[in-house]
């Protein structure tokens, strides 16, 4: 009868694969939440998108107002009130019986 010796695995060999697995899963788990395309970054990007959308809405409203004023000054149908208002602002003129209130809004140089 022959006896065969069985080799015992060392402690190092038994724990390398589980330790590597834990390390890889930890790495990817961390980057799923904190990475450049992770969940936390997604929340920040969504907040930024919301702020930009609100800014876009306010700019669109300003644009509509400006387009309305420009349409009133186009050739063929200039309104006298608009023409009078802009001429007074540009030339800094008023009638002697008028009271002028300066608000700082409606600057034509912008």
From TrEMBL:
Keywords: Cell cycle, Cell division, Coiled coil, Membrane, Transmembrane, Transmembrane helix
Coiled-coil intervals, chain numbering: 42-76
GO biological process annotation, one example: cell division
Membrane-spanning segments: 15-33
InterPro entries in the cross-refs: FtsL/DivIC
Pfam families named among the record's database cross-references: DivIC
Protein name: Cell division protein FtsB
Protein source organism: Bartonella apihabitans
């Amino acid at each position: 009868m022959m006896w065969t010796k069985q080799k015992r695995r060392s402690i190092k060999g038994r724990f390398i694969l589980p330790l590597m697995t834990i390390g890889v899963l930890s790495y990817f788990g961390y980057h799923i939440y904190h990475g450049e395309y992770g969940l936390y970054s997604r929340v920040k990007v969504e907040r930024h998108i919301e702020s930009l959308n609100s800014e876009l809405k306010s700019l669109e409203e300003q644009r509509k107002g400006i387009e309305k004023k420009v349409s009133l000054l186009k050739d063929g149908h200039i309104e006298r009130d608009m023409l009078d208002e802009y001429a007074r602002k540009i030339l800094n003129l008023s009638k002697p019986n008028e009271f002028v209130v300066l608000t700082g809004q409606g600057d034509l140089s912008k």
